[in-house]
Automatic annotation (TrEMBL):
Keywords: Proteasome. It comes from the Bacteria. PANTHER family: PROTEIN PAFC, PTHR34580. Pfam families: HTH_PafC (PF19187), WCX (PF25583), WYL (PF13280). Residues 249-320 form the WCX domain. Residues 155-222 form the WYL domain. The keyword Signal does not apply. InterPro entries: CBASS_pafABC_assoc_protein, PafC-like, PafC_HTH, WCX_dom, WYL_dom. One of its GO terms (cellular component) is proteasome complex. Residues 14-136 form the PafC HTH domain. It comes from Conyzicola nivalis. This is Proteasome accessory factor C.
Length: 330
């Protein structure tokens, strides 16, 4: 009868990597069999037993630079010897590592909840696992919370369905000039800028990549037509907005520290004149309504200089907003 082959010995580097992976694996599962661990790491069960015995005599010396009981890992030896079960009963130095506060963990979990709704984040099981780990690893239990749904959530859900099914998405779109057209696109990517969300997709009406703001999309539906373009098939521009011959040119003064915030709107080769801590340059916008929103997001750091109709549009819009906060004279 042939003797079973001995497991191939690990080199020092391989053994260190293996141990560094094994410890967090054991901690996360609390109780696990030797067989299960061996299958997970694709090694012989005896190698797992040897590693556990090594872990049990490993640790970090205390303030006296000597090893006391609490400075070493420990396991439930009876379970290990009699039942081939691994249970860590003492963990070294891990509880002393920095942890997120309950508020920090809650903020991260809220962000992950929102990200999990986006179509490109297909592996939502991994996101859910990360949220659970954040909750367990915080210094205190995070406050229960939920991210408020927005009007764009239903559209995001259909985009996700379209991406998962590999089918085209159809919708009515309100363009920058006020025209409404039925569009049919292959969804490629969802991106955000400030408080707005945008869909970038291959537009079959224009036979090119186009950007659509989600709050201008209405009556969306997933079609039965398969997509013909994927994100890996086309080159997406680095900037979110593409210029066109119909764009309006606006001159602005912007603080040096805020120029990067307008990078998507400043055309390549635009002049930039330094004026006492500010830069005078030009933007390209599709309409003045979008310019009003843009300037409102940069109050105090950007000013419209020219043309006069652009200045007037922004000033009137700001005045109308301020008037709503004035007290009723009656």
């Amino acid at each position: 009868m042939a003797r079973p082959k001995k497991p191939k010995p690990m080199h020092a580097q391989e053994k260190l990597t293996f141990l560094l992976s094994l410890v967090p694996f054991l901690i996360e599962r609390e109780r696990v069999s030797v067989t299960e661990v061996a299958e997970h790491f694709a090694v012989d069960p005896e190698q797992i037993r040897e590693a556990v015995r090594l872990i049990a005599v490993s640790g970090v010396p205390g303030e006296t630079n000597t090893y006391q009981y609490e400075d070493l890992f420990d396991i439930a030896w009876d379970d290990f010897e009699d039942n081939d079960q691994i249970v860590l009963t003492n963990q070294v130095a891990l509880d002393d590592s920095p942890r997120f506060s309950a508020r920090e963990a809650a903020a991260l979990i809220a962000g992950l909840q929102y990200l999990s709704s986006l179509p490109e984040n297909a592996d939502r099981a991994a996101v859910a696992s990360l949220m659970a780990k954040l909750s367990r690893g915080a210094s205190a239990h995070p406050s229960p919370l939920a991210v408020e749904r927005t009007e764009s959530d239903a559209t995001l859900a259909l985009i996700r369905e379209s991406v998962a099914g590999g089918t085209q998405l159809e919708f009515d779109y309100l363009g920058s000039r006020g025209q409404r057209e039925r569009r049919r696109v292959d969804p490629l990517r969802v991106e955000s800028m400030d408080a707005d969300w945008y869909l970038r997709g291959w537009d079959h009406l224009r036979s090119a990549v186009r950007t659509f703001r989600l709050d201008r999309i209405s009556n969306p539906r997933v079609s039965s037509e398969p997509i013909s373009h994927r994100a890996s098939d086309v080159t997406l521009p680095d900037t979110l907005f593409e210029t066109s011959d119909d764009d309006l040119v606006v001159t602005v003064d912007v603080a040096n520290s805020a120029v990067a915030l307008l990078a998507d709107y400043i055309p390549d080769g635009a002049d930039r004149e330094q004026l006492d801590g500010r830069v005078r340059t030009t933007l390209r916008v599709s309409h003045y309504h979008g310019l009003k929103r843009l300037m409102a997001s940069m109050a105090g750091v950007a000013t419209v200089v020219d043309p006069p109709e652009a200045r007037r549009a922004v000033a009137e819009w700001a005045a109308a907003g301020a008037a709503r906060y004035q007290e009723d004279p009656s």
